[in-house]
Amino acid sequence: MVYSKDQLLARLKELQIDFSQYEHPVVLTVEAQAKYVGNVGGALSKNLFLKDKKHRYYVVSALADTKVDMKVLSQRLGLGKGGLRMAPEEALGEILKVPLGCVTPFALVNESASHVSLLLDKGFKTQECCIFHPLSNDMSISLNAFGLDKFLKSIGRDPTYIDLEANPPVGKDQPPDLASLVPSGSTVLPDLPEKTPSQDSSGNHPSAGNNSTAVTAKADKPSNAVQNVKEKSVNGVRPLIPSTDAGKFVEELLDRTSTLLLSEISEDSIKRHGGQLGAEVANNIKKCLREDLKNLATIFKNTAYTEGFYAGTHYQPKRF
Predict the structure, then answer these.
(1) Are strands 130-132 and 43-52 parallel, antiparallel or unpaired?
(2) What pLDDT, in 10s, does the model give residues 91-143?
(3) Which helix (H) or strand (E) holds 131?
(4) What's the rounded Cα separation, in Å, for the pair 290 and 194?
(5) Which residues does the UniProt record annotate as the domain YbaK/aminoacyl-tRNA synthetase-associated (predicted)?
(6) Is there a contact between 81 and 75 (Cβ–Cβ < 8 Å)?
(7) One CATH from 3.30.420.40, 3.40.30.10, 3.90.960.10, 3.10.310.30 for 5-208
(8) In the predicted model, what is the mean pLDDT of residues 262-283?
(9) Which secondary-structure segment (H or E) carries 119?
């Protein structure tokens, strides 16, 4: 079974875990998330999905302002200075079953993530509540560390909180302090299948939470600081969805721009704006496309980053 956002929320309620939920537009960074839930009284989190050279995977979940040095963390796990790197993007779908930007401790609810090690920031214990995405980055939920522990124990996890900023010496007489958290087995990703109807045009699996049924905008614990914002189509134009096919993506972008352009030009708009119509249309198109393109640029940047790490594991320079 692959959990959706709604199924996860239902499980939290079934476990009688107190939480508040807040809908917002899709966000890909902590900074973007903070615009919508930064004032609800909880601590934002950042979450890393990492792998080592033996194909063992880790989720590192920390407070947004915690400094995580991957080289130090790698040494503390007994993997050497360069033993950890970002996991490839396809591992998100194959192992965690979530799309880019949705990594959190909740992704470990899926059976495919049973061998993924979870490292939690001990700073969570000092917070009244902490904020995470519930398998989908169009919503955030806040809960305390006790509630998070209760959830993790319900899926057979023993929560381990560590000081992620510590840098203890590692040597012959000082063994790595986190070596016990290294997973016992490796995970080998299967060959990626050809795109089928079960995948959307971005290559993400709908089961990862992208197509979850919309949850009511009202939070379990309402807050005036959060406005429920829903993405709306502009003049009947569908939101732009990135495609793995560059040519198809360009055509979609041109079609969307053309549709917006034609929708802005009407007899009424010509009468109202006259000689300023061109500038008015240009401004409206920029306003309509700006957020789409910003999100796409972030997606491409993150994809290039993870793919760069992935390529590095396959390319071995010749030694002379």
Answers:
(1) parallel
(2) 999 999 999 999 999 999 999 999 999 999 999 999 999 999 999 999 999 99
(3) strand 130-132
(4) 32
(5) 24-149
(6) yes
(7) 3.90.960.10
(8) 68
(9) strand 117-121
